[in-house]
Design a protein that fits this description.
It is built from no helices and 8 strands. It has strands at 17-21, 24-29, 32-37, 40-44, 77-81, 84-89, 92-97, 100-106. The two termini are 24 Å apart. A 4-stranded antiparallel sheet has the order 1-2-3-4, with no helix packed on it. Strands 5-6-7-8 form a 4-stranded antiparallel sheet, with no helix packed on it. With 110 residues, the protein is an all-beta fold.
């Protein structure tokens, strides 16, 4: 799958957050997790796993206030996880769920 930023060349100095993912480095940009290799960019997704589960964790508010609501304009980076979007806050994947935020585990940031 091609990415919207196909013309951009990722590097250590490109300004995008880097994530260690499945033994390589991916770049987090505009809600996409991109892997660049051989001049081609492909989109990746953080898999649902023991490290990054999909679970309900009521009462979890690490990294932001309890009244903060994640969404497209919340200021946290969007991260594709399984079949949904999480938001990166304090190194963890947060998923808005009713009146609380679920912890979907830590992300391996570089």
């Amino acid at each position: 799958m091609s990415s919207p930023s196909q013309q951009h060349v990722h590097s250590a100095s490109c300004g995008h957050r880097t994530v260690t993912h499945e033994g390589h480095v991916d770049y987090l940009t505009h809600g996409h997790l991109e892997h660049q290799e051989g001049g081609r960019i492909t989109e990746h997704v953080i898999a649902v796993s023991a490290q990054n589960p999909v679970r309900c964790t009521p009462g979890y508010h690490d990294g932001h206030s309890a009244d903060h609501h994640h969404g497209s304009a919340c200021g946290h980076e969007a991260v594709p996880h399984g079949d949904h979007i999480d938001y990166l806050s304090a190194g963890h994947l947060h998923f808005p769920h009713g009146d609380h935020c679920d912890d979907h585990g830590a992300l391996a940031l570089n």
